[in-house]
Protein 1
Amino acid sequence: MDESNEKSSTPGRDAGVPKAVVNRLSLYLRELEHLLRGGQQTTSSHQLGRVLGFTDAQVRKDLAYFGHFGHPGIGYRCDELVAAIRRILGTDQPWTVAIVGVGNLGRALLGYRGFSERGFRIVAAFDTDASKVGSQIEGVEVFHVDRLAEVARAHRLRLGVIAVPAAAAQHAADQLVAHGIEGILNFAPVTLSLPDHVRRVGVDLAIELEQLTFAVANRLGGE
Amino acid sequence: MDESNEKSSTPGRDAGVPKAVVNRLSLYLRELEHLLRGGQQTTSSHQLGRVLGFTDAQVRKDLAYFGHFGHPGIGYRCDELVAAIRRILGTDQPWTVAIVGVGNLGRALLGYRGFSERGFRIVAAFDTDASKVGSQIEGVEVFHVDRLAEVARAHRLRLGVIAVPAAAAQHAADQLVAHGIEGILNFAPVTLSLPDHVRRVGVDLAIELEQLTFAVANRLGGE
DNA sequence: TAGATTGTTAATCGATTAACAATC
DNA sequence: TAGATTGTTAATCGATTAACAATC
């Protein structure tokens, strides 16, 4: 929503793929991994759609944007489709990530297991607070923001996560951009101004609650 | 997308309002508050659209779903529009929230200032870990999940936030639902199965990074 | 073969944009 | 009055769904 939750595609070089489709791809992937853990070998557009609340036609259409992954009469082999979606999303290869801001939220993100499970490696954290700089949190070293250039180069950093207070977010973003970061996941409740070549996803925790509130108050479909 | 970030409306009793519109409403609100802090009295659909990356027509159309908030020739008075959007979203009145799960993420959420700034009051936290139960975190008491019924009644709880591990999320959701919670903000990376009358919003942190990854790898519009 | 399920086309539905009269 | 800007209609654009031949 927001930064966070934009709906339609505003492509650059594009591939003709609506953002909503890519979003559902992540959900398919999550569900497929869940099915695999439960020992299920194959699934169908019907099953995936039922669990996630989509029509079977939509599931098939979404996947067909990217290729032929199914087997008529059979369905989709979970492991095949997992591999295919990972390749599409780009998470078949590891991505290095840095987190800027080691407050409550930054620390929680540093300890979040889900990132590594999904192929992301948090290789560095940054802060300006001298009492934090030099420490290790969840096995990740905390650097002063001044050392961004050096660390970004050393790790070939491509993604940055902003977990600083709102007032510091634009400055943090500028520094990330200056050092070649290509994408920013922004948890600060501000609209960042970024050059066109830098991708962004925004998550505003209060806005998520706000959206839930509206859904409850109006008995709307909540997600 | 996902639980998190669904695109189109799947209404219940509905009001004919697409979910994308409600989502943008939150962004307008955030921006208007930012403008007000900067001392700006009025704004226009053109200005709001430019900052947030929408067309002016879309801004006007979104707002027009709910009433006549602008002044032809003048624009929108920021304070008026803020009040109007808060009323629409339901955040002109306080909402009590409980957080289930006091791990890294739960603790970060308990300390997140943005919630109270937006009209949410976290009145209780729950966990099953005896070493946490009875303590206070960020001024919020941690109860054993067994006391959900009692606390929910005492505080007239309507919203719950799930910040437990994936394996425990469905059980946590079931308990919240059993005690009358009307909306769930789910941070666990699972698709919850919920009765129709309960609203939900899902935020999967790894999926957000995954979406960013795709945007970077494909040079797509990032948000 | 009968049953299941895909990939794809055409039809439907919904959301965004452009344009403009009305208003300040 | 001239300039700015809204609210709204009609036109465009895009996304979802239904249907079905092809396949296993």
Protein 2
Amino acid sequence: MTTAHERYERFCADIKAVGLRMTEQRKVILRVLAEATDHPDANALFQRAYAKDGSVSLATVYRTLRLLEDKGAIQRHAFDDGRARFENTDTDHHDHLIDLDTNAVIEFRSEKIEKLQAEIAAELGYEIVRHKLELYGRKRK
Amino acid sequence: MTTAHERYERFCADIKAVGLRMTEQRKVILRVLAEATDHPDANALFQRAYAKDGSVSLATVYRTLRLLEDKGAIQRHAFDDGRARFENTDTDHHDHLIDLDTNAVIEFRSEKIEKLQAEIAAELGYEIVRHKLELYGRKRK
DNA sequence: AATGCAATTGCGAATGATTTGCAAGAAAAG
DNA sequence: CTTTTCTTGCAAATCATTCGCAATTGCATT
């Protein structure tokens, strides 16, 4: 299990690795991202960062998000509600089950499904670069 | 196999079923939708409808789209490129493979994957209402 | 510690997709 | 043909996200 602090260090390393500067704003945003265990959207991240440091702007949150996404440090998801949501990529790959009543996001992973996907793509003459599997459902009672 | 004309008739029935009016514009838009075999976005649908009848506006295309989506007659997809794309729901359920180079959308269906998904959701205590499986890949050479 | 300069910021304006308010136009019912 | 109510097109309004730009700030070098 990776800790929030380890994630933060890794983000910093990613930034410096390409000669980018470590600004106050970036530090705050990276920390917020590293601490997130949910799937926040850009505005939620901005709120959290702004609470820690009022000098952070929404534009910079978006810029930092894009930066990290390009480096593969975080992942962007476009669930059915329109706006983009983000999560760390240091954890193992997994898919999502979205609770239609609460909007909660549950992570899961199935080796079998991963394998089947690759097989299907191969049959169609394709190689999978990435995939998105989202189950939308309700709790059974 | 459902024909475009049958689909059109069904759309009309859906509209009239709730006491809505059958206007010229709606007729044109329904026809365009019924004839679509691809996954057009709102603007593409507007272009096609406008070509048939210059009195159709983009706003009405959006309004009609939402109408049909609410009735479950068409389905909205949010692929990773941001804008919404639509398709008829009269065909059997299927998933999508998106060609990253050409943006082409290939449909497929796997019984095994469907079954696995249901199993996974059940394990987590959920019942699937709908799901979305998108493979993003490149042609193998 | 002071200097220089390119990277970075916040702001507000721009964007692109989609929605909405409203007055004018057209169905359906009488 | 009239009335009532639904629909429309247009333009303005949203929403999420991006961009231009002048001001600021890291950071490598003195």
